[in-house]
């Protein structure tokens, strides 16, 4: 009854109330060709115990207990147990959009604190109440730049996450927003600034760069800002590894920051749901998509919160809206808020330092392909990437990301990531396997 709440008797009662005797009669008005005409090909029902065991077996097949060196936008970080304790409370788990401020002060408070912390991390003046994820925050930032500048063209670095660039192109297609890519330096892995300068023109609304970029390298934000601002464009800085903000200088030269908070206690969860952000300078606040919670006082002078800005189709005329109808991940953003509260400024810095140290320990045993400074992931030339990962899998290690899928010129390279969860023993195994697989000219200790 827990999973099949309607008994046969109840079904007969419902059919009788509708004036029919068989469920098929409910669909008699549909053409024969549109009806399946047979039961769904589903296995018979099983008990709750068997269901639990089934998922345990599938989890074991998916690498339960395996070490993981995958990064590339989704990172394996520790999740404090307090996070789930807080977000599982009914006040948060079942809450809806906080339109009625008088009964949603708790939710509004957490969103306000979230916005405040994001501003502190990014060096921006204002932040919204989160986006779907980092990939959708990027095109929203690009369209925001187009509205703010009155220009229509966007330049995006090839070192920005390739899937983020794909989402950008999908949005741009029906927006009539031309998007062009510029390259990266094959030696350092940082921005090819000469290529950026060649492609800049007076019609460019935004230059989009990422730091740490897809190769894990801390990129040249100040130089990109100089070039973009020199032609009247806005600089959009993207991040996928939020932990890096604990140690890297905030991208204060940016006009808009778009990013992903998965690293802040949000489980990989087969790809989501996640929480993205957009933060910007105050002068662009009216072009920012999504919601903004503000602080005020109530009739008694007490601190109070409300939706200060909500430029969505639900609230204003469609042609004036700056975002679609649902651009908030409040519950997932709350996870990130609890994470930031638990760690604090010093804790986040120490966590970032651990990530930096782990990755550089591994990189010290193998030669990174690029010479640029990196945070917790880096590229290594290994030759046959799939063969290497198969060898590692036999040792209960999930290897790095083969880059040939996104960068044909790097088909012989792998992107490796090490976080605070990575053990030294596993890093030694990975390094030894790489060294054994590579020729002396490819990798040196």
Write a structural description.
This protein has a seven-stranded mixed β-sheet, sandwiched between helices. A three-stranded antiparallel β-sheet has the order 11-14-13, with no helix packed on it. A two-stranded parallel sheet has the order 1-12. With 445 residues, it is α/β, with parallel strands linked by helices. Helices cover 36% and strands 15% of the residues. It starts with 7 loop residues before the first helix and ends in an 8-residue tail after the last helix. β3 (153-157), α7 (162-175) and β4 (179-182) form a beta-alpha-beta unit. It contains twelve helices and 14 strands. Mean pLDDT is 91; it is low at 441-445. The relative contact order is 0.14. The radius of gyration is 25 Å and the shape is globular. The longest helix is centred in the last third of the chain and has 34 residues, at 330-363. The protein has helices spanning 8-18, 48-61, 81-87, 90-93, 105-122, 134-149, 162-175, 193-199, 221-230, 330-363, 385-394, 424-437, and strands spanning 67-68, 126-127, 153-157, 179-182, 204-210, 234-239, 256-260, 276-280, 291-297, 303-310, 377-381, 397-398, 401-402, 413-417. It folds into three domains: 1-40, no CATH class; 67-78 and 345-437, Alpha-Beta Complex (Aspartate Aminotransferase, domain 1), CATH 3.90.1150.10; 81-339, Aspartate Aminotransferase, domain 2 (3-Layer(aba) Sandwich), CATH 3.40.640.
